[in-house]
Amino acid sequence: MHISKPRSILLAGAVAVTLSATALPAAFAAPSSTAVISEVYGGGGNSGATLTRDFVELANAGSAAYDLSGFSIQYLPGTPSAGSTWGVSALTGSIAPGGRYLVAQAAGTGGTVALPTPDATGTVAMSATSGTVALVSGTTPLTCKTAADCAADTRIVDLVGYGSAVVREGSGPATGASATASVARGTSLADTDDNAADLTAGAPTPVNAAGETSGGEGPGDPGNPTEPGTVRVHDIQGTTRVSPLNGQSVTGVPGIVTGVRTSGSRGFWIQDATPDGDARTSEGVFVFTGSTAPTVSVGDSVLVSGKVDEYYPSSTTQSITEISAPRVTVLSSGNALPAPVVLDAASVPNTYAPSAGGGSIDALALDPTTYALDLYESLEGTRVQIADARVTGATTAYDEVWVTVKPNENPTQRGGTLYSSYTDQNTGRIKVMSLDTTRPFPVANVGDELSGTTTGVMDYASFGGYNLQATELGTVTDHHLKREVTRKQKDKELAVATYNVENLDANDEQTKFDTLAAGVAVNLSSPDIVSLEEIQDDNGAVNDGTVGSEATLKRFTDAIVAAGGPQYAWRYIAPENNKDGGEPGGNIRNVFLFNPERVDFVDRAGGDATTPVTAVKTKQGVTLSASPGRISPTNDAWADSRKPLVGEFRFHGKTVFVIGNHFASKGGDQPLHGRYQEPKRSSETKRVKQATEVNTFVKSLLAADKSAQVITLGDLNDFAFSPTVNALTDGKVLKPLITTLPAGEQYSYVYEGNSQTLDHILTSPGVLRFDYDVVHINAEFADQASDHDPQVVRVDVNAPK
Is residue 569 packed enough to be buried (19+ CB in 10 Å), middle (13-18) or exposed (0-12)? Predict the structure, then answer.
């Protein structure tokens, strides 16, 4: 198994490395994101070896060629003596992005198989079991012989110590090297500056810059045969999610090319035209060609040799079974493709995934007639077909669209698919992408139809899970989804709305301000109060200590006026710099807009970034100690997270308390489609703490005045049926209004083809008469100003008790 960064998008993150006294200190070098030593083998020519020479393989994990002019590979014995010196092998040329570079070293008397043509050749005799290899900028021999001394030499680009090497990176050297085993990184090329963690032992697999492997390429050669070998695709795929041949080399695997991907994770799919009759074993597999564009075409009959590998896009996803470092023989072209498997309401099971009690489902035998994820896995790499599929997730900026093959599965009133519980997953959802880069991808909104037949190959990705890589794409039937416009509040009604405006700052394009402003002025019909989430400081992600949002809010409120709305005033409390999470440098916060012609804001001094607001009981009822104020801002529930903003308003002689929220995100939760079932929702713990803090504050208001009218609203990043909302409503002090709508309207956000609710408005028992509406203007549309739909509640503050 290897766990990798996505091949087209590198995920941001930091890796903490703990070093022992004998390991290279942290100052040695930052982990390389470009050139690395990808494999080291010192057993060439030894007794029992297959290969005749030692080698060092380099790789480039970057997106641009890496120039090796003037560089060298240097070798030091694992336990150097006083007279030991570094052996130097000069390098020339460059490493292509995603490519390999092979340095041949000394030959021995054993072995029978030559290396592929090396890109550089040295004469260093490396130990099979222990040594240190360094990639060095320059050809002057290194002089360091300890980890500490080497730490000071900035010429070292990457270093691998193996066996019992004194000089190594991290907690220890890579282990397991021998006459028959090299130490190598996974195909992810992950470099955490810890040799023991980054490299593992296995059969040597040298690859040169041309992508050639050992054994030559002549006709009849075992690495490039003209007759099929004994292994078929279904043997590789097996009856579980992990190949029984994982890590092994295969030769002459036959198949018909069914799809070719020339960008991103490059490669092609093959499918065996003679299936084995076992529904659990897929007949298709992906052949990963790395930085090299595939040279095959759909319809080619091929024999593929290479290494079977399980590629995990992330640590929590399922894997993709593939053949890596391939060598391909094309036997013929223009062959008929295997018939696609039809996916529809009858063929896809109603249960989503098997349970492993929260553990991995990798080893569970597939049951494609019972579980949808098992069905999709059993079709991994296989041709599939859908027809007349309803769109449940609009076309994204990445040219993908979500559809359902089950038109009657939990439909919303506007054509989506409702996500209604943790245990009732929507099994008919599938993401559709296209392998045809010559045609524009169709633009579709929720409720449209991908008409006709769409045919392609079943694939898997970290975002969204199983997806159909289309070779033949249907056409979009436009069902003319309209953006909603809510009614105008009556004179006696206080209209309060919530809107996540998605990282709005003064540097954004005017079109974003204008579109969001129209949403407030037109679609929300100019509410009296708007609680905004994701307002950033005035220079957005520029991390220079700026925390104010005056320029951002001036542009936004001016745009609302231009769209026909009122001249809103605003209130907020600026966060401490870089203390509220969100985009680094953005200083995200909650903000109240209010129409001073309709409602009064009660300003009361004392509110700041760290002072908690409290309920103050008076003879006239409850008031706030500060307005605006923040709820328990120094409590660890809000660490690196947006703090709730509380404001006291007056409308038609009545006091109304509004609490604007933006709870912690779902980042870190295991995906619905992942290999851990049931998935853990680790982020939930923090949101429950936050909900408890808000609930406690609302209880303090009601303890001082049980009839207090409190409106709590915002992006809670959780569902109506979640523990978060349960904690927020504890004691029935708040009522979630989303549950008052018909089931088909209970959503404000669309994610991976699921219509769901993250945004909420809740009211206290003192709010006796209300009219509530989720205003669908964004989440279901390919063209959206925000990924959230706003919502509004209209309250009769003087409703008789």
Answer: middle
Pair type for strands 735-736 and 759-763: antiparallel
Q: Is the dihedral of CA 48, 50, 52, 54 positive or negative?
A: negative
Q: Are 25 and 168 in contact (CB under 8 A)?
A: no
Least confidently predicted of 165-169, 263-267, 399-403, 646-650: 263-267
pLDDT in tens, 726-781: 999 999 999 999 999 999 999 999 999 999 999 999 999 999 999 999 999 999 99
The partner residues of 270 in beta bridges, in order of sequence, read: 257, 285
- How many of the other CB atoms lie within 10 Å of CB of 15? 12
**Least confident residue range of 2-6, 415-419, 530-534:** 2-6
What is the tens place of the pLDDT at every residue in 96-109? 888 899 999 998 88
Please give the pLDDT value at position 784.
Answer: 96
Burial 330-356 (b: 16+ CB within 10 A, else e): eeeeeeebbebbebeeeebbebbbbee
How many Å apart are CA 49 and CA 44, to the nearest integer? Answer: 6
Residue 264's nearest CA partner among 67, 402, 461, 465 is 461
Dihedral sign, Cα of residue 211, residue 215, residue 220, residue 222: negative
What does the pLDDT read at residue 215?
A: 52
**Closest Cα to residue 137, out of 151, 120, 153, 160?**
153
Instruction: State the burial class of residue 605 (Cβ atoms within 10 Å of its Cβ: 0-12, 13-18, 19+).
Output: exposed
Structure tokens at 579: 């203390």
Structure token pair of residue 713: 């609203």
* Residue entry with tokens 């709010």: 767
Q: How many helices (H) and strands (E) does the chain have?
A: 8, 44
Give the pair of three-digit tokens for residue 778: 């964004």
Cβ atoms of residues 15 and 169 within 8 Å: no
**Mean pLDDT for the chain overall:** 92
**Which helix or strand (DSSP H or E) is residue 254 part of?**
strand 249-261
Q: Which helix (H) or strand (E) holds 376?
A: helix 372-378
Can you list the alpha helix ranges (DSSP code H) found in 632-780? 684-704, 723-728
| Cα–Cα separations (whole angstroms), residue 198 to 24, 40, 182, 749 | 15, 13, 13, 39
Is residue 572 a contact partner of residue 643, using CB atoms and an 8 Å limit? Answer: no
The Cα 720–Cα 715 span in angstroms is: 12
Question: What is the pLDDT, as a whole number, of residue 220?
Answer: 35
List residues bridging with 762 in a β-sheet: 712, 736
Residue 616 token pair = 């103050």
Token pair listed for 729:
């409503």
Q: What is the DSSP code string of 587-612?
A: --EEEEEE-TTT-EE--BS---SSPB
* Residue 504: strand pairing partners: 535
